[in-house]
Amino acid sequence: MPGIALFKAYHRRYDDWFVRHATAWHSELLAVRALLPWRGLGLAIGVGTGRFAAPLGVQMGIDPAREVLDYAANRGILAVQAIAEALPLS
């Protein structure tokens, strides 16, 4: 998975982008929020740093890049290292 290497190497730059471009981030949050149900549990596949999942009320997320999971956990998300093709859920 070549894309994972980018998040491992640039996780700080990725997360900081949302601070530097707060207006764009908030605009995207509103667009995504309009498509999500208002109730129920949520699972973010590819949760990354949790910048979207946390404010959208998603409780759990998976990501293959271990480096980003601490960010998500610090934002209140149960963060699990996994890939979508092999979810660790039963």
Overview features:
single chain; 90 residues; alpha/beta; Rossmann fold; three-stranded parallel beta sheet
Describe this structure in words.
This protein is α/β, with parallel strands linked by helices. It has one domain: Vaccinia Virus protein VP39 (Rossmann fold, 3-Layer(aba) Sandwich), CATH 3.40.50. 44% of the residues lie in helices and 12% in strands. It has a 3-stranded parallel β-sheet with strand order 1-2-3, covered by helices on one side. Helix 1 runs parallel beside helix 3. It starts with a helix and ends in a 9-residue tail after the last strand. The relative contact order is 0.18. The model has no long low-confidence stretch (mean pLDDT 88).
Question: How many DSSP H or I helices?
Answer: 3
N→C terminal distance: 24 Å
Taking Cα atoms only, what radius of gyration do you get, to the nearest Å?
13 Å
Kindly report the CATH topology. Rossmann fold
> Which CATH class is shown?
Alpha Beta
| Beta-strand percent range | 5-15%
Mean pLDDT across residues? 88
Tally of separate domains: 1
pLDDT below 50 for ≥5 consecutive residues: which ranges?
none
Proportion in helices: 40-55%
By secondary-structure content and strand pairing, the structural class works out as: alpha/beta
CATH homologous superfamily assignment: Vaccinia Virus protein VP39
Number of strands: 3
Shape: globular
Largest sheet: 3 strands, parallel
What pattern of helices and strands is seen along the backbone? HHEEHE
What is the correct CATH architecture?
3-Layer(aba) Sandwich
Which strand order does the major sheet show? 1-2-3
